[in-house]
Amino acid sequence: MEISALQKARYAYEPKLPAVLTAPVEEIAVKFGAATESIADQKELKALFKNTYGKPVAKFAAGKNENAGKKLIVGVILSGGQAPGGHNVIAGIFDGLKKGNKASKLLGFLGGPSGLVENKTVEITAKMMNEYRNTGGFDMIGSGRTKIETPEQFAASLATAKALKLDAVVVIGGDDSNTNAALLAEYFIEQKATTQVIGCPKTIDGDLKNEHIETSFGFDTACKTYSELIGNIERDANSAKKYWHFIKLMGRSASHITLECGLQTQPNITLVSEEVEAKKQSLATIVDQICDSVCKRADAGLNFGVVLIPEGLVEFVPEMKKLIAELNDLMAKEADEFAGLKGFEAQAEWLAKKLSKGSAATFASLPAEIAKQLLMDRDPHGNVQVSRIETEKLLMGMVEARLSVLKKKGTYKGKFSSLGHFFGYEGRCAFPSNFDADYCYALGFSAFMLINAGLTGYLSSVKNLTAPAAKWIAGGVPLTMMMNMEQRHGSKKPVIRKALVELEGKPFKTFEAKRAEWAEKTCFLFPGAIQYYGPAEVCDQPTKTLKLEHNKK
Questions:
Q1: Same domain, residue pair 206 and 350
Q2: Fewest beta carbons within 10 Å, which of 175, 377, 456, 525?
Q3: What is the rounded distance in angstroms from the CA atom of residue 305 to the CA atom of residue 282?
Q4: Is residue 19 helix, strand or coil?
Q5: Contacts of 315 by beta carbon, 8 Å cutoff, 6+ apart
Q6: Are residues 57 and 112 part of one domain?
């Protein structure tokens, strides 16, 4: 197979590890902290996770490892959407297993969690592994969004684990996937199976994090990729001086990507869903905010600009959030009846009778195309597929209509032309940055060490990420520690709580202090492409979000 010069060079890149993980396996010990509690709903979660609740945080340190040299058979699953660096997590697991005992085996489950249920695997060999090191994508074994939730699926997973004599399964995924990992770990213990379950924190959205998980992998690369594209558009906008660009960015539940890209590129408007919800901003309020920037810039002869929009914005606008929640519940509880309706008009008429008065009015006020997008098939978790809602077009149309009114009043005299963009898939399978290549490899190696230590129900953790990689701190955090109970499919379910943008946090406060200036003036920054070779200050830097959270400029 012919490969590019960059791909060939990336194959040869050797990811950096925390110093403790570079020692021989027999010299790496696990140290435990105190017992833990879940972040909420302790009583309910303790009852659900009788065997795995309350475990201590684990940390690796120099010491004697009694389990060194143990032969292991481990299965690995890529679950959910792609994120740059996934192959390096697998590489870290593979290299750890072979370092511990060359006879150990790593099996890749094909197509995501369904591979475990259906016992579809491929043995990952050194030759196969070497073709995917430091590359983007999940194409090595494929991914999937199957949720293991029925008794039959759990039983099939157990049968696979027994048939393959698995010592452990590693689930590489986001909050929902790792919630599934926690349930699987508990189930295996209940069934007296010895197969351990370990998770790895993956999601470019950046919403799987806490004090022990400082960032999810793929976030760094995705934000740098999007920021390059945004910077390119800003340069074009500043050159042509005739378009307002409305750019929607991935991030269904949290605005971490949008905020990070805003900090990296300094566009005129950066919308943050969490702020919209906290301040109960309506669609009209958001439109007024954008129009204010358009008008002020037009007065200065600047009839161009850039607006960043988080993918999940509509779910945070109060009237839209209420509508979507009602739609999700209705379409879960009365799915068969809804499925029998023919055409949008019939659906709208049915919903007018079923929705609350306020939500029915909101639904009726939406452009037909946007309303139809709200009724598309739900994702596997029962939620509206917000990536298919063209929020950028909704805002473009509303801004244009509002400016027409202002023009008639004589308060706006500029020219407004808009272009819409959605950056999503462009960032999911990029070549991982050096940071993500290193971080993912360390997460994978740490997952191996958690397995080697005999642990289950843990999420691989690597901390102190603004320091050089040698000073990173590796270990694991109990999955139940990050959980609460939430409404899903019309009933309460245990889930890992999503980490949203903190409005009192340093990243948002830094943005907030500058946004009025950015809204009026042209302060664009042009980050350029991800750099893989050169000085560390160019090639190995983490995101601005991470540095600000660690109080570093």
A1: no
A2: 377
A3: 22
A4: helix
A5: 252, 253, 273, 321, 324, 384, 386
A6: yes
**Please, are residues 535 and 528 in contact by the beta-carbon 8 Å criterion?**
no
At residue 470's C-alpha, the angle toward residues 467 and 475, to 5°, is 90
Contact between residue 46 and residue 37 where contact means Cβ atoms under 8 Å apart = no
Calculate ∠ Cα 118-122-124, nearest 5°: 145
Domain limits for position 10: 5-218+432-488
DSSP-derived 3-state class of residue 274: helix
What is the phi/psi pair of residue 432, to 5°?
A: -60, 140
Does any domain span residue 493?
no
- When computed from its CA atoms, the radius of gyration of the chain, rounded to whole angstroms, is 24
Nearest to 419 by CA among 237, 208, 162, 270: 237
The rounded distance, in Å, linking the Cα atoms of 232 and 198 is 40
**For residue 8, what are the contacts with CB-CB under 8 A and spacing of at least 6?**
none
Q: Could you give the count of Cα atoms lying within 13 Å of 244 in the half-sphere of its Cβ?
A: 28
Asked whether the whole model's pTM tops 0.90, one would answer yes
Rounded CA separation 447/455 (Å): 10
Which DSSP helix (H) or strand (E) runs through 399?
A: helix 391-409
Could you give the CA distance from residue 392 to residue 187 in angstroms, rounded to a whole number?
43
The answer to whether the beta carbons of residues 254 and 205 sit under 8 Å apart is yes
- Sheet of strand 269-270: strand arrangement: 269-270, 305-310, 244-249, 418-423
Which residues have C-beta within 8 Å of that of residue 396, sequence separation ≥ 6?
246, 418, 420
What whole-number distance in Å separates Cα of residue 511 and Cα of residue 91? 37
Give average pLDDT by consecutive 10-residue segment, the chain, 553 residues: 88 97 98 96 97 97 96 97 97 98 98 98 98 95 94 98 98 95 98 98 94 96 98 98 97 94 98 97 96 98 98 92 89 88 92 94 88 82 77 94 95 96 94 98 98 98 97 98 86 92 98 98 97 94 96 71
> Residue 11's closest CA among 20, 21, 1, 23?
1
* Helix/strand/coil for 39: coil
Q: How many CA atoms lie within 13 A of 9 on its CB side?
A: 8
What CATH number does residue 300 fall under?
Answer: 3.40.50.460
Tell me the sheet residues that pair with 249.
Answer: 310, 423
- Determine whether 548 is exposed, middle or buried from the number of CB atoms within 10 Å of its CB (0-12, 13-18, 19+): buried
Two structure tokens written together for 353: 């009778």
Quote the DSSP letter at residue 22.
G
Q: Which residues are catalytic?
A: 205
Distance separating the N- and C-terminal Cα atoms of the chain = 44
| 252 found inside a domain | yes
Phi, psi for 418 (deg, rounded to 5): -125, 150
